[in-house]
Each structure stands twice: as structure tokens, then as C-alpha cells.
What does this fold into?
Amino acid sequence: MQLSRKRCPGKPLPSFLTKLVVLAVLFFPVQAVAFWPFSQDKPKPPSQAVVTPVVTVNEAAVLRTEIQGLANELFRNLADADPESGDLGKGVLVCTFVELKKLSRTSSLGRYVAEQLMNEMQQHHYDVLEIRKSQAILLQEKRGEFGLSRKPTEINQTVAAGAMLTGTYTPSKDSIVINARIIDNRSAKLLSSATAIIPRNQLAEQLLADSASVREEKPEPLYLKKLEL
It folds into this structure.
């Protein structure tokens, strides 16, 4: 007597896909969680790293702050800082800062430092004389009105001032050392001095890029005539 196999009602035979899922769960339990068809839990997305924004520093504002500190140190080191009757009571001239290695060479950095120190001196109520003031205003169409000049024929040849503010700068690999001094015009006595160190950033590189030296006139050649005696 042979027994016939009968299907139980409500229990279908496992399909081929179900067998694969069962094998995957047995051998790869971690990986199978992601595609288990009867699972209600969804994998959590990976957490995203928080990107901190880079804060850019205004290099021009930093340089101006350093020059202000340089000016304040000059004022503190004056023996008599009274604007009217002190060491600078007879007025002060502000000259372009030059490179320490060659005192006849400067750049936009040397001119910029002088411009900012001139502004600081005036704001502290010192009499600052502008030696670049031209004797007449030059008017040019589509260009503007020019009241400053560096041509000797266009400016006053004599200026009376009791002191001179000048200095040097020394570029290094990562920074620039600026030394400022105020000198008595009559006695050449050092009235005050100060030092500032600024970073050699992109702005400083641009200001140093147009370095140039003073043009020196070549002496006229001398012609010798041999005299026969």
C-alpha cells in the first residue's frame, strides 16, 4: 500500500525566491537585513560630517591695525608728546619707507606705510606738512584734478619742519619687519622709534611686487688731454 503525499491546505510549498532569502539569512545575516522582504526596520543613512565654514580675514584691515599700533608706539616713546609745544610742535614731514638692504629702494609697501602714518599723525593733532603739494593744480579732461606731484619743478623747493618721520622695512620668509623713527631735523637726534611685524600674506606680496630704486644720474665723462712737455 502506497501512501500518497497530500498538500496541507493553506501551506504552499516554498518558492525558489524564498529559499534564496533563507540561505542568505543563514550565511550572511548582516548583509541580508538590508533586503529581507519581511523586515519593517530600514537602515539608517550614514551621518554627514558638519563642514565648518572658513572665515576669511580682511588683510587690508589687519595691515591698517598694525600701522595704527606702530603710530601709537611712536607717540608713547616721545619725551614730550604735546602736539603744540612738544617735540613735534614745529611740524613733521612724513617720508616714504625704504628697504633696509638698500636705502634708495622702495615699493608700494613703503609708500603705503608713510600714507597711513601721515593719517595717524594728523588724527592725533600734529602739524603734518605735505611736501608733495604742487604749486598749481593740474587739470586733465577724463582724468581729473591733480594736486600732488613728485616732480621737483612742480613742488616747493623749501619746506620748514622741525622733525621727520621715516623708516625702513625688512622682508623675511613669513613676515615683514617695519622700523619707524622720528628724527629732529636740526640735530638729527632720534626723538622716537617703534617696530611692527606684519605677516607676509597676499596683500603684502602685491605691495612688494613693484619694488624700484632711485634713479641715479650718471656722472659726465671726463676727457683728458695729454700734454707734451
Notes: The chain has a mean pLDDT of 81. The helical segments are 16-27, 29-32, 59-76, 108-123, 202-208. Residues 97 and 113 are 7 Å apart (CA to CA).
